[in-house]
Specification:
By secondary structure, the chain is mainly α. About 60% of the residues lie in helices and about 5% in strands. It contains 13 helices and 3 strands. A 3-stranded antiparallel beta sheet has the order 1-2-3, with no helix packed on it. The relative contact order is 0.10.
Length: about 290
């Protein structure tokens, strides 16, 4: 457990990973080390075959592909750390291969559905005006909902239309937004109470809006708009990325906007975009 604590400190401080990521590593490795303890296996001298047995144990315990892949990555990084610190001499994960994960295409809205969603929000009260500003900004930038609700005035240049985001792994990026989002953001700020809060989006009680509360508001708006899809704040992020790629945007630009550290994460949206194009081809081509 001493080495596990050292490893967690290493990925937090030296690698700059987010606290939630470090927590996921700790959770995975606690499961792994507990299994080894029950089997009386020394994690320093464990063999490749014994690690494979552990992964098989996860599989028959109904763990999903993604869980097993994440576990493999956690174990790999742990042993990589142990090697780098000279705590062990041989890495048992060298030839460990992860199962292939089937591509699960994210839910998304069409451009028409996004327009319907946004236009269904009235501007008759403060909460509605706030909601419209949040949704416009979410679709204009592809922010994560956690990034949206934690926006501070110091993060936004409303006149130049850009936001400074400190995303996962404490990586900073600059995200532009367009004039329509600027219009609704200005409208909201005009009616927002002058309270002593650095956060942009507030509740009726002048507290920063929570993820759950925004999700609840979004569900009600989608219901009003007649959208029956299982919509979440992340749906607008998916829609934003897919619509950019379908419109011809460079994938590197989309990667930068989303704050993905690896382009492979962004590439899932190219599958969504291709499926959409194939669907349209079959629908409209004479021989489709």
């Amino acid at each position: 457990m001493q080495y596990l604590d050292e490893f967690i400190n290493y990925i937090l401080i030296e690698k700059g990973l987010a606290k939630n990521t470090a927590l996921a590593y700790r959770t995975d490795l606690n499961i792994y080390l507990k299994y080894l303890e029950e089997k009386s296996i020394d994690y320093k001298t464990i063999s490749h075959l014994e690690i494979t047995d552990f992964l098989w144990y996860l599989k028959i315990s109904k763990s999903g592909h993604r869980t097993i892949c994440r576990m493999i990555e956690s174990i790999r990084q742990f042993y990589k750390f142990l090697i780098s610190e000279n705590y062990i001499q041989t890495d048992p994960t060298t030839y460990l291969s992860a199962p292939k994960i089937p591509i699960i295409l994210p839910d998304m809205l069409s451009i028409e559905e996004v327009d319907r969603l946004l236009n269904s929000v009235s501007d008759t009260d403060k909460i509605s005006i706030r909601n419209r500003a949040m949704l416009e900004l979410l679709y204009a930038t592809g922010l994560r909902v956690s990034e949206l609700i934690s926006l501070k005035f110091s993060d936004i240049d409303i006149n130049e239309c850009y936001i400074k985001i400190l995303g996962k792994g404490n990586k900073e990026r600059i995200v532009p937004f367009e004039e329509k989002a600027q219009l609704y953001l200005k409208r909201y700020l005009k009616i927002r109470k002058r309270v002593n809060s650095e956060y942009v989006f507030l509740t009726k009680l002048n507290k920063p809006i929570s993820r759950i509360e925004f999700w609840r508001q979004l569900k009600n708006i989608a219901l009003k708009a007649g959208i029956t899809k299982n919509i979440t704040p992340h749906t607008l992020r998916h829609s934003f990325a897919t619509h950019l790629l379908t419109g011809g945007a460079d994938i590197r630009f989309v990667q930068e906007m989303l704050g993905h550290s690896s382009i492979s994460t962004t590439q899932i949206y190219t599958h969504v975009s291709q499926d959409r194009l194939q669907e349209q081809h079959k629908k409209h081509h004479p021989r489709g």
